Amino acid sequence: MQAQPTFGALFRSKDKRDYTILISEKFKITGEEFKTVDVPSDVLVGWLGHEMGHIMDYQHRSGLNLIGFGFRYVLLKEFVKKAERAADSFAVTHGMSDYILKTKRFILDNSDIHPTYKERIKQYYLSPDEILEMVEEMDSTKNG
After folding, report:
1. Averaged pLDDT for residues 80-91
2. Which of 2, 29, 74, 103 registers the highest number of CB atoms within 10 A of its CB?
3. Long-range contacts (CB closer than 8 Å, 24 or more residues apart) made by 105-113
4. How many C-alpha atoms does 28 have within 13 Å on its Cβ side?
5. Contacts of 128 (CB under 8 A, 6+ apart)
6. What are the angstrom distances between the C-alpha of 137 and each of 71, 94, 100, 140?
7. pTM of whole model > 0.85?
8. Average pLDDT, the chain
9. Is the pLDDT of residue 91 over 90?
10. DSSP three-state, residue 31
């Protein structure tokens, strides 16, 4: 999956932008092919939630900043980490923690997924423990 502003959106005001989430019928993770329809629905909801997190991040950026975002994402590993963790954080803070956790566990606990991809997930995205910590912190803020 991939979330991105439409090309024309880069030249519109923030409140008039359009975004696209691209979803493939099949996807490969380090050589292993999965059909989207075979992935548990909660996992797909988690992936969509993550992509919506990217869109939430994009909404606060100017068109020029979005162009720079794209270049930095392609060129800088540390920027990829920051962007992916931000998308996860947006999703978690908007009530998607259960789905995001199911998506992480689907990837990290799936023996058909190559260890290299699992390492990428561990390197660039929030871990299940970090997500649980965020949820606990949000709960304590609500209740405290």
Report:
1. 97
2. 103
3. 106/39, 106/40, 106/43, 106/46, 107/29, 112/32, 113/29, 113/30, 113/32
4. 3
5. 101, 104, 105, 108
6. 33, 14, 17, 5
7. yes
8. 93
9. yes
10. coil
The structural domain count of the chain equals: 1
In this prediction, residue 27 has a pLDDT band, given cuts at 50, 70 and 90, of confident
Residue range(s) defining the domain that contains residue 78: 2-143
Residue 29, pLDDT above cutoff 80: no
E-state strands within 2-132: 2-5, 19-22, 26-29, 32-35
**Separation between Cα atoms, residue 47 and residue 143, nearest integer Å:** 29
Determine the average pLDDT of the residues in 107-118: 88
User: Region 51-64: what's the mean pLDDT?
Assistant: 95
Identify whether the C-beta of residue 92 lies closer than 8 Å to the C-beta of residue 132: no
